[in-house]
Amino acid sequence: MSRLLPSLAAALALTAGAAAGDDSFIVLQSTTSTRNSGLFDRILPMFAEASGIEVRVVAVGTGQAIRNAANGDGDVLLVHARDAEEAFVAEGYGVERFDLMYNDFVILGPSADPAGVAGMADAPAALAAIARAGARFASRGDDSGTHRKERDLWRMAGVDPVASSGAWYLETGSGMGATLNTAAGLDAYVLSDRATWIVFGNRGDLALHVEGDDDLFNQYGVILVDPERFGHVKAAEGQAFIDWLLSDAGQAAIAGHRIAGRQLFFPNAK
Amino acid sequence: MQDLGGAFGEAFRLIGAFDGDLVEIVLLSLRVSLSAVALAALVGLPLGAAVAVARFPGRMASIAAMNAFMGLPPVVAGLAVYLLLSRAGPLGDFGLLYTPEAMVIAQAVLVTPIVAALARQTIEDLHGDYDEQLRALGIGRTGAVATLLWEARLSLVTVLLAGFGRAIAEVGAVIIVGGNINHVTRVMTTAIALETSKGALNLALGLGIVLLAIVLAINALAGLLRHSVAESAHA
């Protein structure tokens, strides 16, 4: 022990400088789709250069991001579940919600397409067909923005998939990437945001079957956590970030994020 | 093509490139887990030794509890620490959530029972051999704890290594209380989870191989340390 402790101490001293940073930062509660698509890697350095403010991203499902922000564990919330975002503001956790950008959801599935949904333009009808065929469907099952959208679509389809949970309906309770990995492994259908799908590296036999339905619209919003409710919220820095996102410069930065020549998010701030 | 061969290729590429981001992630992993083990040692070793030597009502129950907490799921430890450190929690005013310090606390919670329980067993076994001598020399309980910890130091290195293995390998606790923030709280295991979620399985597995290599190096270092201590003890 007497020799181990000094060597431990030396190791700690060696690495202690690693996380020393300056104080001008905000914590952004956001979703995996925005992070995994590389959007933040592109736009946050631009904002840092313009403002000197570092943005620290915690990327979790929309439901968890909203709960974390409601605990005061973040300065800005950037998610995609409009009703939940408006409730967050109405309940006094957030100052105001702004439309930021959009993309869309797509329905993916095995290339053999056992439910015969390829090319359908009606997303709820496609889900109904999947249910009728009893084909496997991998659901996020985690109260994320994508999961909320999926539940809306099942409701429109008039199907209660949870009744078949464990049979053909598989609730992974995981993030988009983990659920895509599951779908690829089990030849299951799956609802994904387009950005995550475009950058996803383990597609296996999955193919894009359904897209373009208005019901698959995916709106992202941004909200400042209410500094009157949480005194520690960095209101000035957080508001500066939101102002920049909604400005021409921020909107152009979002539009300029391309993977393999494809635009992943479409700015639509008013 | 995603396969094991690709993963090894990726691992060698990562090490060969000596990428700045990777170095940062490795150093943070070591800093967090070594700090957690140091904290766990400060609390767990004396605690384990004291329980080994002392006789008190409820001793068996506290041993059972210590042993049971070795099986504490990391995600539960992470959630408990999150609730403590969240701005809405009792320690929220310190602003520790999403910092490396929060990750150290969560891993210390995980590792302390392991260190305490294994130290208790080690010391108790040793105590049987030394009990009469200690009594004959008139050494009290406190002195006995210190003496036995010293005499058991070689075995206790292995105890600490077991704790370190648990800390460096877990992802459930640090991803909740650290938030996996790039350049701030991203460690090896959360980086692996992230790359897996992107479907970049080769890169994820490559990082895993790098992590294993680092753990192997640490164990080798500890082995050398033990060896040199044992040598000098016999000299």
List descriptors:
heterodimer; A: 270 residues; alpha/beta; D-Maltodextrin-Binding Protein, domain 2; 2 domains; ten-stranded mixed sheet; two-stranded antiparallel ribbon; 12 strands; 40% helix; disordered N terminus; B: 235 residues; mainly alpha; MetI-like fold; 10 helices; globular
Topology:
The complex is a heterodimer of chains A (270) and B (235).
Chain A: H1 4-15, E1 25-30, H2 32-36, H3 39-51, E2 54-59, H4 62-70, E3 76-79, H5 82-90, E4 94-110, H6 123-133, E5 137-139, H7 145-157, E6 169-171, H8 176-186, E7 189-193, H9 194-199, E8 206-210, E9 217-225, H10 235-246, H11 248-255, E10 258-259, E11 262-263, E12 266-267
Helix pairs in contact in A: 6-7, 10-11
Chain B: H1 4-17, H2 20-53, H3 59-69, H4 74-85, H5 100-136, H6 141-151, H7 153-169, H8 172-178, H9 188-197, H10 201-234
Helix pairs in contact in B: 1-10, 2-5, 2-6, 2-7, 3-5, 4-5, 4-8, 5-6, 5-7, 5-8, 7-10, 9-10
What is this structure, in a nutshell?
The complex is a heterodimer of chains A (270) and B (235). Chain A contains eleven helices and twelve strands. Chain A is of the alpha/beta class and 270 residues long.
| Strands of chain B, count | 0
Number of domains of chain A: 2
Q: What's the level 1 CATH class of the largest domain in chain A?
A: Alpha Beta
The succession of helices and strands of chain B, N to C, reads HHHHHHHHHH
- Percent helix range of chain B: over 70%
Q: Could you tell me how far the N terminus lies from the C terminus of chain B, measured between alpha carbons in angstroms?
A: 56 Å
Query: Alpha-carbon distance between the termini of chain A?
Result: 64 Å
Any low-confidence stretches of chain B, pLDDT <50, length ≥5?
none
CATH superfamily of the largest domain in chain A: Periplasmic binding protein-like II
- Count of alpha and pi helical runs of chain A: 11
Multimeric status of the protein: heterodimer
CATH topology of chain B: MetI-like fold
Helical fraction of chain A = 40-55%
